[in-house]
TrEMBL record:
Belongs to the mitochondrial carrier (TC 2.A.29) family. The lineage of its organism: Eukaryota, Fungi, Fungi incertae sedis, Zoopagomycota, Kickxellomycotina. Keywords: Membrane, Mitochondrion, Mitochondrion inner membrane, Repeat, Transmembrane, Transmembrane helix, Transport. SUPFAM superfamilies: Mitochondrial carrier. It is found in: Mitochondrion inner membrane. This is Mitochondrial carrier.
């Protein structure tokens, strides 16, 4: 592999490539995110008018609310997706170089890949927590008539709950992103090391998709419990009474006691269907864009 192909990109190129990869992924996979949120917000062990499966979510949303509801709340993640995914990859690359220097390592090892992923995830969480809260409020079924779009949602949260409300769920978001990025980048490193080296660009893209999809699945399996707790924390409106959850670990304990351990994986199927292939899409688009940038701008 040539030095040009492995030369680190400047931060602004990393940022742009991550943004393009992130927006590409969300446009393809967003309805699964809506289904995930609806399932995660269901308290209890089933029955009543609760959704029974991902197919039931899609069918009922289209029938009862209209197909456009499958893209309800997409503006906040689109607005934050560029910096979010850009930070995911740019911060990972930046932390990778920093930790190699710090530990005098010639190349990234498995422990360093996990450490850089977790560090990038924590950084990413600080950026996305507030837009995530707005997105969750817009996606929740019970809020269908409460907010008339993104800016109306922001104004009403501020007016009714105060500025501090936009920080709700930050701690659980840090858990969610730290675990996902650590699992994603750490497993990608191991998977790529184990796979046969590709001899063509098409083979390299296939390897990236497979590694990214497996990495996305592992990251999703690790981070679904904090995602469930985060989603419930962020959807809570003080007008509905005191909050049942305040942080990840006590929230997870309460959910297990009240609903059983499996409740921590509500919404897992649409989440993994999105972030498994989505992780592959992210890695392939990011690699394609950065390769183009190195070839044409460096």
């Amino acid at each position: 592999m040539s030095d040009q192909a492995t030369k680190p990109l400047p931060f602004h190129f990393q940022f742009a490539a991550g943004a393009i990869a992130g927006v590409s992924e969300i446009l393809c996979m967003y309805p699964l995110d809506v289904a995930k949120t609806r399932l995660m917000l269901q308290v209890g062990k089933g029955g009543g008018d609760q959704y029974k499966s991902i197919l039931d979510v899609f069918t009922r949303i289209i029938k009862e609310e209209g197909p456009t509801r499958l893209y309800r709340g997409i503006l906040p993640p689109i607005m934050v997706e560029a910096p979010k995914r850009a930070i995911k990859f740019a911060a990972n690359d930046t932390y990778s170089a920093m930790y190699k220097n710090l530990f005098n390592a010639e190349k990234i090892t498995q422990p360093l890949a996990i450490l850089t992923g977790v560090s990038a995830g924590v950084t990413e969480a600080l950026i996305v927590a507030t837009p995530e809260l707005v997105k969750i409020r817009l996606q929740a079924k019970e809020n269908a008539g409460r907010y008339n779009g993104t800016m109306d949602c922001v104004r009403k949260i501020y007016a009714q709950e105060g500025l501090k409300a936009f920080g709700n769920g930050l701690e659980a978001t840090i858990w969610r992103h730290g675990l996902w990025n650590g699992g994603y980048f750490g497993s990608i490193f191991a998977i790529k090391e184990a796979m046969p080296r590709a001899s063509t660009k098409k083979g390299e893209l296939l390897n990236n998709f497979v590694a990214g999809a497996i990495g996305g699945t592992i990251g999703t399996t690790l981070n679904t419990p904090p995602d469930v707790v985060k989603t419930r924390i962020q959807n809570h409106n003080p007008a509905n009474g005191p909050a049942r959850y305040s942080a990840f670990l006590p929230g997870a304990k309460a959910i297990i006691q009240e609903e059983g351990f499996r409740a921590l994986y509500k919404g897992y199927v649409p989440k993994v269907l999105r972030l498994g292939p989505g992780g592959g899409i992210l890695l392939v688009v990011y690699d394609t864009v950065t390769t183009y940038m190195r070839k044409n701008f460096m």
